[in-house]
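Box S1 | Example of a co-folding query
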Amino acid sequence: MPSVTVRVPAKVNLVLSVGPRRPDGFHELATVFHTVSLFDEVVASPAEEVSVTIEGAQADSVPVDESNLAVQAARTLAAYAGVTTGARLLVRKGIPVAGGMAGGSADAAAALVACDALWGTGLGRAELSILGTRLGSDVSFGLVGGTALGTGRGERLTPAMVGGTFHWVLAIAESGLSTPEVYAELDRQRGKRAVAAPTVAPEVLAALRAGDAEALGAVLDNDLQPAACTLAPELEATLETGLGLGALGAVVSGSGPTCAFLVRDPEQALDVAMGLAAAEVSADVQRASGPVPGARVVT
Ligand code: C5P
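Box S1 (continued) | Returned holo structure for cytidine-5'-monophosphate
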């Protein structure tokens, strides 16, 4: 069996409304996931054991032991489907590591799709999604991609209608933030205050349907943003710089520290990207567009 290559995109949360902390430690969410064209690739090749190697500028920051989500994904699928062989996984990182763009979950989604094809287990997306949810809250979305309303801990998905392509500039920080630490900081800031049930305003879905970037820019919102900015105070300046350059909206992506700027078109993306790079407020600046499909076999 030849190797299988799967390409999987990063996500930003256009809205991330965080409700109360649940007894299982997760928070109830209402979020709008949106894939953007920054990709990881996972190549799965025949092998007796499951192993992983990582390529890319931030490869050293990704573990290659049991804690690697792609390894966990392969093992979970093998156990579920009764597969006794292994797979050698190669992960080519294009998604920022620990950047709030679900890079780890994307790799898990890609590894599920790649190993399913490599081993001929023939599971449907729905079954892979159930396995994916055991691995991380964002894995289900990595399997489908596009733009979707997420509830529960983010694993219950409803596709959202999108009337066009949106253009983004992403400011990527030098070092990452830990998702559990950002949620813990949010809980600390909330203290004993009562927390309302999470919601997504109808204006967000209307802006998406209309393909109206200006309207969408005005309603980008992330409850984790204040906590991320407390843990990484330099993000305030990054967000202000992008807005000062004329971006239609700015939001910390997921638990951060990547900042996502919505712009009008590819020309404005170039202007804002160049301005952010010149201001030296982040380690790297990338342009992307969305939505794009989720994890797909490319060979
Ligand atoms: O599911 P995932 O591995 O992405 O979650 C990482 C951590 O983020 C969890 O252990 C939890 O601390 C926090 N989290 C949360 N509520 C969610 C999703 C994640 O508290 N809905």
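Residues 8 and 295 are 4 Å apart (CA to CA). The pocket of cytidine-5'-monophosphate is lined by residues 25-27, 29, 136-138, 153-154, 179-180, 183 (CB under 6 Å).
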